[in-house]
Amino acid sequence: MSGGTTIHSLQDARERSGSPGHGQREASLVSYIRVHNCVLRSLWRKTVQVSASVLCACFVALANSVDGPISPTNIFAPDSTPAHSIHRLSLFVLEVTGTIFMIVFSLLLYAVIKFRRKRRDDDADSEPPQIYGSNQIELAWTVVPVITVLVLFLSAAQVIHRVQDAPRPKGTIEITAVGHQYWWEYRYTQFGFVTSNELHVPVSEPQYPTPTFIALLSADVDHSFWVPRLAGKTDLIPNHPNWMWIDPQNPGLYLGQCAQFCGTQHAKMLLRVYVDSRADFDRWVHQQQQSAVSEPSVAEGGALFTDKGCFACHAIAGTGAAGQLGPDLTHIMSRDTLAAGPVSNTPENLRRWIRDPSVFKPGSLMPAQDLTDKELDQITAYLLTLR
Ligand code: HEC
Ligand SMILES: [Cu+2]
Questions:
Q1: pTM for the whole thing?
Q2: What is the pLDDT of residues 239-281, one digit of tens each?
Q3: Which CATH superfamily is domain 296-383 in?
Q4: Ligand 1 centre and the CA of 240: distance in Å?
Q5: How far is ligand 2, taken at its centre, from the CA of residue 360, in Å?
Q6: Burial category of 272 from C-beta neighbours within 10 Å (exposed 0-12, middle 13-18, buried 19 and up)
């Protein structure tokens, strides 16, 4: 449009047809191109202005939506350093790509409307101006995208580096999460106990950071640990240990979901992370470290737990039960939910679960046991003492 623009073929055509007043026409063509450039330039400025204000409006709307009650899985309400870094990066990428989208789309719209085929084009024997390259424009559309991609690449690399190479300060809690079809096993090796489905971590204060580093393993298929307010997704891959970390800055319950399809009950493989104050966390750890107390009043239930084969899949610390195929039940009553989140842990639900797990989770890997009502009551009564 500027610089080395040539218009050979139009001139050629004119020369060939020998049309009169050819110098005059060339002059009007040049002024047409000049006007055109001017229009383009002001259009460009407008586009940038409009895209900037639309983007601002989007962000204000976004920020406002965060002001209301926060959804426990809101990706726009990070509350832990890795989630903060990812959130900032994604907003930056959205800004850049959003601006590019607005510019390209506006130019496209302009071209479609302005240069659409007009009635009088049909009978004109002239061609539109033919443009054979412009160094300036070609340079611009090579250099600008290269710089854009480079900036995006470097900002992503920086965030990856910051998250993956984070130091482990002194107060770091180290645990291991094992994904099972369709539940979570949490090993607190440091504290000497194992629990399931509900993860407890201490709040991490900036002046006394106690981040939690989580090693991620799988007992069967690919799973993915994703609590959006705390960190990005990390997969639990069989035979390929991964790890991630979180340092939640506020106490509360953070929810997530297995984020990798792992079988029929994948959708009911929920994540619950309880962020406790330091005192609450220490109390919880102390309680989890205790073995199960056997109450004589529920001895029949305890015996049935063995007789009916429950012990083959479930462990209860302090008893002979050491099964590994199902969740550790030593402190089952300290959990708010059953079966990785979808069922609230009430005595009725516990009984219904033991009678037939498929009522809640069809396809769960716990088989229904053949139990009489009395046996059900006894086993349930026994489990109710495991707090
Ligand atoms: C073949 C192995 C197996 C046997 C036998 C078995 N379970 Fe399970 N159990 C599981 C699995 C696997 C789960 C996790 C299911 C899920 O969440 O998808 C489970 C879950 C549970 C839960 C919920 C645990 C939690 O953390 O929410 C309870 C309670 C339970 N079983 C009790 C029993 C009792 C009582 C028996 C004996 C009558 C029994 N189980 C027999 C495999 C078994
Ligand atoms: Cu899963």
A1: 0.78
A2: 999 999 999 999 999 999 999 999 999 999 999 999 999 999 9
A3: Cupredoxins -  blue copper proteins (2.60.40.420)
A4: 26
A5: 17
A6: buried
Please report, for the chain, the start and end positions of each structural domain, with discontinuous segments joined by +: 1-69, 173-287, 296-383
H runs (alpha helix) in 174-326: 278-289, 299-307
Contact 331, 262 (CB under 8 A): no
Work out the pLDDT band at 78, boundaries 50, 70, 90: very high
Q: Please state the atom number of ligand 1 nearest to the C-alpha of residue 328.
A: 26
Residues 6+ apart with CB under 8 A from 258: 179, 182, 223, 224, 225, 226, 266, 269, 270, 271
Residue 364 near ligand 1, beta carbon < 6 Å? yes
What are the tokens at 378?
């006894």
Return d(Cα 309, Cα 323) in angstroms, integer.
Answer: 10
d(CA 186, CA 335): 13
pLDDT of residue 159: 95
Q: Residue by residue, what is the 3-state secondary structure of 17-63?
A: HCCCCHHHHHHHHHHHHHHHHHHHHHHHHHHHHHHHHHHHHHHHHHH
Which atom in ligand 1 lies closest to the alpha carbon of residue 364? 18
Q: Is the confidence at residue 186, as pLDDT, over 50?
A: yes
Q: Do domains 173-287 and 296-383 have the same CATH topology?
A: yes
Of 313, 319, 353, 384, which is best to mutate to test ligand 1, by the most ligand atoms within 8 angstroms of its C-beta? Answer: 313
Confidence of residue 8 (pLDDT cuts 50, 70, 90): very low
Token digits of residue 375? 């046996």
4 pLDDT band, cuts 50/70/90, is: very low
Q: Does domain 173-287 fall into CATH 2.60.40.420?
A: yes
Averaged pLDDT score across all residues of the chain: 85
For the CA of 182, the closest atom of ligand 1 is 18
DSSP code for 363: T
